[in-house]
Amino acid sequence: MGKRMKLTRVLLFLLLVLSIYPTAGALTSEITVEAIESDLTESASEVAFAQSNATVLFDIEIERADKETKVHLKADGSITDYRKVELKKNVEEDRPDRIYLDIKNVSLADPIRVKPVGTALARVRTGRRTDGFRVVFDSNLDELFDYTIREQPDGLLVTIREPSVANAGIADIMPVAEFGTESDKGIGPAVETIYPEPKGEGDLKLVIVTSDSPDHAREWLNAPPDRKISLKRLKMTKADQDIFTSFLVTGITPDIDGNFSYEISFTLLDASGKPVENRRHYSKTAGKAPTYPAFIMSEPELALVLGSSDPIGDYTIIGIVEDLTNNKIVRNSIRITLTR
Q1: Which of 86, 136, 183, 226 has its C-alpha lying 20 to 30 A from 31's C-alpha?
Q2: If one looks up domain 6-50+184-339 in CATH, what number appears?
Q3: Domain residue ranges of the chain, discontinuous segments joined by +
Q4: 57-176, what's its fold?
Q5: In angstroms, what CA-CA distances link 324 with 202, 228, 252, 329?
Q6: Range 266-285 average pLDDT
Q7: Please, are residues 202 and 195 in contact by the beta-carbon 8 Å criterion?
């Protein structure tokens, strides 16, 4: 079977880790980096780690368009165990038409603030439950919107269809940005701005950054506090355009000597959800652990290119970090859209 995606160059940088403390500038640590080659296979055993059921919800991402609004529940696996309930509006209590999903056996990594949307979907709300969490979708129409729910390898996708009457006013009522991300529109690919916070020891977290520049994530890490730049992620790409992918890790646990060690693995899913690249043990990073919450950039950075023969649609990069000190494993993912 022919490859449906091209891996171009893997950029090898100096053997170092750059980490940053939010209020005290940049820190450089001596590290050793090992890029580990592995065969690319599509067997069930090799890709099973990318298709397990979710245990943690990391975030909720909103994508607005003229004809539909997409709500991505971003988790560390597929969300399959949930109950859906539709509720009619309650005028006396000022409650709109709405649906909620009770998702079992999945916890919230952190509290998620109410996300105003301003399309046919008014807002998205979440709340913890003893056996999982509840997510509520409030309608912005006189009745409940049309919607679909689709399980994803990295969570759950809820798509709200926009009625033509509502479309005309969307631009006027759409907020400039949702909490946590903001859309940047202009010349070139669509991007989003994110505001990741470093975690303390033992609170392992992985942030995946895609960019059209090989230096963007490094410049963000190195920027002094008084000249902090925005961290932007590429959300759309065109055929034969470089996609530089960085894996940022925080919350690592040092050993008794104050050293850390972790491995990165990743899988790339095509627009149909089929794994086309699978790299277990893609890279190993080790060094002296920072003494304060900080991000560490894994090396080597990955350069991906989707070719003109690849089908258009949403591609998903699923990353896994394993802390080799305490064997803790955390997943995260990012979706990038190939357009013509």
Answers
A1: 226
A2: 2.60.40.2550
A3: 6-50+184-339, 57-176
A4: Immunoglobulin-like (2.60.40)
A5: 12, 31, 9, 9
A6: 85
A7: no
